[in-house]
């Protein structure tokens, strides 16, 4: 019943019907999001929990926006480079948000002297 009246839990009723009748399951990412497409090459995602666009990992993001046609596989779950960080969703508005370190005005040393 919740699917009829809410859009913020996984998918809307329209997306549910579209997935049921025309959707072909393509794959799943490490967060549990499921990806679909139809015969017209429309692509969409059904989120595992709350709808949050930043939960889509980069390889699947490229596929969703038709940048690549190859469907990301299990190799997309692994880091490609040693310097690469783990994907995180946007944490703005939560306690885990980025907090820059405040620099005191007197602690900054300049590399030059001003004219007197």
Shape: elongated
Please tally the helical runs, counting DSSP H or I stretches of 4 or more residues: 3
How far apart, in Å, are the first and last alpha carbons? 75 Å
Structural class: alpha+beta
Order of helices and strands: HHEEEH
- Looking at how many chains there are and whether they match, the oligomeric state comes to single chain
Strand order of the largest sheet: 1-2-3
Helix content: 10-25%
Low-confidence stretches: none
What is the alpha-carbon Rg in Å? 22 Å
Number of domains: 1
- Percent strand equals 5-15%
Largest sheet: 3 strands, antiparallel
Mean pLDDT: 83
Question: How many strands appear in the DSSP assignment?
Answer: 3
Describe this structure in words.
This protein is an alpha+beta fold and 116 residues long. The chain has one domain. It has a three-stranded antiparallel sheet with strand order 1-2-3, covered by helices on one side. Strand 2 and strand 3 form a beta hairpin. The mean pLDDT is 83.
């Amino acid at each position: 019943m919740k699917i009829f009246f809410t859009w913020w839990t996984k998918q809307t009723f329209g997306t549910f019907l579209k997935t049921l009748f025309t959707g072909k399951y393509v794959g799943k990412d490490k967060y549990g999001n499921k990806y679909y497409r139809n015969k017209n090459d429309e692509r969409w995602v059904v989120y595992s929990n709350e709808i949050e666009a930043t939960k889509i990992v980069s390889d699947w993001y490229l596929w969703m926006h038709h940048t690549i046609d190859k469907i990301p596989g299990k190799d997309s779950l692994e880091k490609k480079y040693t310097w690469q960080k783990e994907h995180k969703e946007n944490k703005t508005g939560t306690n885990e948000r980025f907090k820059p370190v405040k620099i005191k005005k007197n602690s900054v040393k300049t590399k030059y002297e001003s004219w007197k």
